[in-house]
Amino acid sequence: MTTTTIRRWGRSLGVVIPREEVLRKRLKSGQRVAIAVEPSPGPDDFADLCGTVRWRKSAQEYKEELRREWGE
Among 25, 31, 35, 67, who pairs with 72 as Cys (CB 3.0-4.6 Å)? Predict the structure, then answer.
């Protein structure tokens, strides 16, 4: 299985098959292929990122630091 990104082509959506997969499966232009389409969660899906980042300081500490640097 491989993952790729959906791209807009005119009024349609399409995917590019990565070169490694083309070579591995010996695919050729014009050849018919069967695909299974499933959304893949990833860094572009904000909901999957929530709660995964651990900050060294609290939001308040960052805010106070910025205020000190800006001279407020």
Answer: 67
Give DSSP secondary structure letters for 10-57: TTEEEE---HHHHHHHT--TT------------TT-HHHHTT----SS
Q: Is 68 helix (H, G, I), strand (E, B) or coil?
A: helix
pTM: 0.48
Residue found under tokens 């640097």: 69
In contact, 41 and 48? CB cutoff 8 Å: yes
Buried b / exposed e over 22-55, threshold 16 CB at 10 Å, is eeeeeeeeeeeeeeeeeeeeeeeeeeeeeeeeee
Per-residue pLDDT tens digits for 51-62: 667 778 888 998
pLDDT tens string 1-51: 788 888 898 999 998 899 999 999 999 999 999 988 887 766 666 666 666
